Every structure is written in C-alpha cells, then in structure tokens.
Amino acid sequence: MTISRDGTITDVNAATTKITGVSRDRLIGSDFSDYFTEPEKAQQVYQRVFAEGVVHDYPLAMRSTSGVVTDVLYNASVFRNEAGLVEGVFAAARDVTARKQAEKELAWRAEELARSNADLQQFAYVASHDLQEPLRMVASYTQLLGKRYRGKLDADADDFIAFAVDGAHRMQVLINDLLAYSRAGTQGKEVASTNSESVLEAAQVNLMAAIEEAHAVISHDPLPTIPVDATQLSQVFQNLIGNALKFHGPEPPRIHVSAQQEAGEWRFSVRDNGIGIEPHDADRIFVIFQRLHAGQEYPGTGIGLAITKKIVERHGGRIWVVSEPGKGSTFTFTIPMAEVSHGGYRRVRASSAS
Fold it and tell me: Coil, helix or strand for 200?
C-alpha cells in the first residue's frame, strides 16, 4: 500500500484487500493503522519511516474483518515527488504465519528432544547404578565358587564357573562404561583455559603400561592452550591413543598428535600406523556399542569412541576419522576458540602454542 503523510491509505494491491477483507474503494482514504492489531505500534513505526527513511522487517499483526489475525513483517520506505519532497510511504507487509508456526513447532520439538535426552540419561544412570549391587554379588559368589571348587568337580563344571565369572566381569565393565557415557555430556567440570600439551602428557602417564607393552612411540607437535574441561580432554586423548595402541598391526605403534588453528577453532589430529578402518565404517565406529571386531580379538565394549564424540560435541566441536585399511587412521576433532558459558559460547583468545 501507499500511505500519505497523515497516515491515510492512497492505494493498495489485491493482496491487501484479501488479507484485510476490505474492498479497495473502502481502504483508500482510511487510516492504515486501523488494520493492525496494535494501531499505536503501527503508527510509531510509521513515524520511524519518516525519521529514518526506511524500516526493515518490523513485526506486526494484521486483523481481517472476519477476525483472522496474520503475522507480518512490515517493510516501508519514503517516496518523493518531482520536487524531491517526501510525499508519503510505500509499505509492504509480508505474511510470515507459516514461518511463525514452523518456529513454534521447532521450539516445541527442541523442548521434547531435550526432555527425551534428559529422560534417557536418567534412565541409563539409574538402570546402570541399580544393576551394580546385584551384579557385584553375582561376580563375588561366582569367583568364590571358582576358587573353592576348582578341580573338585568335573572339567565341565570348571568351565561353566569360568564362563560365569567372565560374563559377570564383562557386564561390570559394560555397566561402568554405560555410566561414563550417560555422564559425558552433562556432568563435566567447568570449562577453563587449559594447556592441552600437559593434558596429553597426563593421558600418556595413565596409558604407560599399555604404551610400554606395545613398544609404542608417541610424538606430538607444540599444542595450544584452549578453553576446555581438562578431565574430559584427557579422556579424549586416552581413548584415541588407547585405540591406536589396541588396534596396531605387526609393527610397533607410532602415534603422532598435532594441532592447527583454522577459522576460529583448533583442529587436533591423532595419527597412527594401525590396522585402519574401512571407509564405510568411518561413521559407525562413533555409535555406542558398535564394534568392528570380535571381543576375543580386541577387548572392549564399543563405548569409548561414542564417549569421545559426546565430549567433543559438549565443547561445540566435531570428530571424524580418515583411514585406509592396513595404512593407519587419523582421528581429527575440533575445539572452538570460545568458552562454554551458561549454554552459549563466549569468544576468548587462545595462545598459539604452549
């Protein structure tokens, strides 16, 4: 519509007659603000057009004669006569009802997803925690049976008891890993400026026995100081290096950790010379309980990389792997150069190296 300086409508298009339910003849000469649910607000933004020359995407709502309310974004600019004097305003209202509805549905789905995730985490924690005590009793008594009656019964009995003890032990490991997974995204410590090189060294100390047993060589480039949960970053390094130690080929493991700064984030890489991964399994290995090898061949529950992914995502980063069977793997994860704070990220400066 076009509107004169005093706020009366001078012309409209067919869309205006449709959204208001008023004929063109009746619209022309009437006050434009009468067709908005908040006339005073419409008049105020109209005055802004004269003061500023233009208004972009101002949210208003229009009401038709039948009572139907339509959410719109109001855009307007002044127009001048041949003498260069402001004569009035050209205004366009864009119907955003569908977008508003989509935003409401998206917000509702986000709330439902958050609630569902919280329920799943609580279920995993409670189920795992409540299973601990009876399982501990099963494990204790089967171990007691094994010690007391080994060799006193027949060979089958010894085997059966050994299977029971092994099953109870594997279940305990699985439950502990499930507990760690359920806590990874919600029960971390505060994010703080952290020397990632020191964290890597601490992770290597925790893996010392496995490193020595595999005769592994671990090297690293200078690593930065970054805003992270130091305990969880240590867990990421331990899981990635631990996997490289576990899945090595005939040669002793050679593992190299590097980091480089790219587009507002630090990109860490853990490269090894292990057995590698088939390309079609590159995403599957980050899914909880997904294993590519039998438990007898390589021990573990298949939760380690899922925990690693959850920790990285908690920090606002992402993780992926590039690999070729028989030629090793390179796991890469990113950490934004921003500090997690009250659900958002605050920009901080990270040093280039420690």
Answer: helix
Task: Please write the tens of the pLDDT for every residue from 260-307.
Answer: 998 889 999 999 998 888 887 777 888 765 555 444 455 555 688 888
Quick check: helix, strand or coil at residue 158? helix
3-state secondary structure of 83: coil
3-state secondary structure of 257: strand
| Cβ pair 34, 79 in contact under 8 A | no
Other Cβ atoms less than 10 A from the Cβ of 162: the count is 13
CA atoms of 343 and 37, how far apart (whole Å): 35
Total Cβ atoms within 10 A of residue 310: 22
Q: Which residue has the tokens 């974004």?
A: 73
**Which residues on neighbouring strands pair with residue 9, listed in sequence order?**
3
User: Residues of 101-113 as b/e, b for ≥16 C-beta within 10 angstroms?
Assistant: eeeeeeeeeeeee
Q: Which long-range contacts (CB under 8 A, 24 or more apart) does 57-63 make?
A: 60/36, 60/93, 61/36, 61/37, 62/19, 62/20, 62/35, 62/36, 62/37, 62/93, 63/35, 63/36, 63/37
0.70 cut: is pTM over it? no
Tokens of 38: 């908040």
Distance from C-alpha of 55 to C-alpha of 51, rounded to nearest angstrom: 10
Tokens encoding 155: 């060979």
CA 161 to chain centre: 44
Say how far apart CA 263 and CA 278 lie, in whole Å: 29
| Cβ pair 145, 137 in contact under 8 A | no
Amino acid identity of 207?
L
Instruction: Tell me the C-alpha distance between 19 and 95, whole Å.
Output: 9
Strand, helix or coil for residue 232: helix
- Is residue 156 within 8 A of residue 221, CB to CB? The reply is no
Q: Name the stretches of the chain with pLDDT < 70.
A: 124, 127-128, 177-178, 181-188, 288-302, 338-354
Q: What value, to the nearest 5°, has the Cα angle with vertex 218 and ends 215 and 222?
A: 165
R_g of the chain computed on alpha carbons: 32
- How many alpha carbons lie under 13 Å from residue 90 in its C-beta half-sphere? 6
